[in-house]
Each structure stands twice: as C-alpha cells, then as structure tokens.
Automatic annotation (TrEMBL):
SUPFAM superfamilies: Adenine nucleotide alpha hydrolases-like (SSF52402). This is Universal stress protein. InterPro entries: Rossmann-like_a/b/a_fold, Universal_stress_UspA, UspA. Belongs to the universal stress protein A family. The lineage of its organism: Bacteria, Pseudomonadati, Bacteroidota, Cytophagia, Cytophagales. Residues 5-128 form the UspA domain.
C-alpha cells in the first residue's frame, strides 16, 4: 500500500495531540500529505472555529516530521463530512480517534468513528487514546 494522502479528523478532545502525533509519524514514514480536519457540528455553531488550535496542531505535525500538512474546517454532521472530505481529497487512509463509548451511550449518541469505518471510501485506522 502506498500512502500519498492521510486524513486525520480532530475533535479537540484530550486525545487529539496523541492522535496528531500518530498520524504525523505515519505521514513522515511514508512521505504522505497529512490533512488535519475539524468538523463543526450544528450544535457547536456558536463555539469558536478553532483556527488557533488547528494552527498549533499543524505546527506539531510538522515538527514531528510530516512533510506536507494542511488544515481545514467544515460545518455539518461529523461522520458524513469526514467521509466526504476523504473522497474530495482522495485520501488513502483516515486516521481517527476512538473514544471507547460502549453500550447505551454509543446507542443513544452514535459513534462517529464507527460510521466512518463503515462508510469511508478508503481504509480507516482507529487509534485508541492511552488509558488515563
């Protein structure tokens, strides 16, 4: 498998820096472009866009050796927007964080990573956050 484009969706949770480090290491090892994407869901419309956070994460990815890093923010439901971005960018791989929701919480709230895994046009690597 040759990687030329890696998509890494971010939710700015506590696990985000580790996820970016993981994706950046993959990009550095393969020479692939790394796209950091934040999806602003409708319920987050009043929250700040996160441009400063994305800029800091881009810098961290570059410092970790990722050769080409770009960022983007889109508005909408997370899973469909991530899948659409993977298609638009012709991503070879999606690197997404897992939050470990199980049972009733996952049933009621849905699980973005699970939907992306089932519907993405490319392989998806699910990265678990380290145990606290």
């Amino acid at each position: 498998m040759i990687l030329t484009s890696i998509l890494c969706p971010l939710d700015f949770s506590a696990a985000t820096p580790g996820l970016v480090a993981y994706a950046a290491a993959l990009a550095a090892a393969t020479g692939a472009e790394l796209r950091l994407l934040h999806v602003r869901e409708p319920q987050d419309a009043a929250a700040p866009a996160g441009a400063d956070r994305l800029a800091g994460l881009r810098l961290a990815a570059e410092q970790a050796g990722a050769p080409h890093v770009s960022t983007g923010t889109v508005q909408g439901e997370a899973a469909p927007e991530i899948v659409a971005e993977a298609g638009r960018r012709h991503a070879d791989l999606i690197v997404i964080g897992a939050h470990g929701q199980t049972g009733l919480t996952r049933f009621l709230m849905g699980n973005t990573a699970e939907v992306v895994l089932r519907t993405a046009p490319c392989p998806t690597l699910l990265v678990r956050a380290p145990a606290a």
